[in-house]
Amino acid sequence: MATFSPEVPESLQTVANKEARRDGMFAGLTAGLSGALLGSKLLRFNRNQTIICGVLTGVLSGYFFTQAFLSSRLAVLKKNLAQQPLDHQPQQQQMDASWSSDG
């Protein structure tokens, strides 16, 4: 039996991408600050090395967290679209748009 794998509408992809970027930015910021603190205190980096450590840690972790959050949100949307009956898809798209914690 073939499984139905619907494509996520572009409007929902845009919302998921925006939220993933927001969450990835916060994850990158906290990872960068933590990396800079650990580099400064534990590894005894000088000021320039600490700044580079914090920036690289923040940028890389922010990127990877953003990709993970985006793929997770798109998987949830695809699952929700696949579970609904085909005749209720427009109604479900409105419900999926409201799953966001943002307004």
Task: Tell me the radius of gyration.
Answer: 19 Å
Going by helix content, strand content and strand pairing, the class is: mainly alpha
Task: Identify the quaternary structure here.
Answer: single chain
**What share of residues is helical?**
over 70%
Termini Cα gap: 39 Å
Structure description:
The protein has 103 residues and is mainly alpha-helical. It has helices at 10-41, 47-83, 89-97. 17% of the residues are buried.
Please supply descriptive tags for the structure shown above.
103 residues; mainly alpha; rod-shaped; 0% strand; 3 helices
Question: Secondary structure elements and their pairing?
Answer:
Blueprint: H1 10-41, H2 47-83, H3 89-97
Q: Can you summarize this structure?
A:
The protein contains three helices and no strands. It has helices at residues 10-41, 47-83, 89-97.
